[in-house]
Amino acid sequence: MIVCPNCNHPNPDGAVQCEACYTPLPATTNCPSCGATVQADAAFCGQCGYNLHSAGVPHVHPAVATTVTPDIPVEVPALVPPDPLLELLQPDALGVSKYTNSHPPESSLPPTEMAVPPEPAPQIPVAESSPPEPVSTVVAQPVVSGQSSIPTPPPVEPAPASQAEVSPPAAPAPTAARTQLQQVTARLLHVQSDRLIELPQNFSVIHIGKPNDRIPPDIDVSGFPNSEIVSRIHADIRVEGDAHYVEDVGSSNGTYINNLPLLPGNRHRLRPGDRISLGKGDLMTFLFQLA
Q: pTM here?
């Protein structure tokens, strides 16, 4: 049976278009290993996991147009004659250096009058004065009274503080805890059972499917309801830096992103809230989340 990708109507084997909506049906073939019906463009058999490309299916590469370099003539500008003003920028363009070791030429201009330096002011003789007389210093004598002097009391020493009054040293102020970078964790929420599945850490490729001997799945969906529509090797999630990509690896019932089919060989960058459906009918659905 061939299921229509547009209306999910089952059609008999060998049908070219859907009997219900007349949509062209994908071409099918038989697996050379187990004989199951698979799509002609599938990479693996959904029943036994056999690599269909190893059976001699030619891989068609898209034609690449040959790039031709246009023949554009290159015009070389004509040489520009030297600017006479640039010659003045050359060292000693005016011939000044020839007067360096000789007297400069006499000028026809009248000589400039030189200012006569002023005469020095006459010095006034200063009469010798006698040195100043020394000032006598009077030492103050202490006044002694007839009464007896009052004894000075000794200084009062502070009483030692008791142990109870001694305050403990102030505790150092608590330092702020260093902010730790939270690592972003990607996970899948199974819509039908409301179950969370965290994607394995440090994996560049995460396989989704059911147990098999070829490529064991990293996310096993065999215990979920309606798992019979999921192929053993169904889809992969590839991690590149902070980006996550999902691609179909040739499943029998296909992979749908936000209710749109994902063609085998193509991949879709996942964003939080994207809806991933394994197979037709939206029976096995996951929501991509970042926590």
A: 0.39
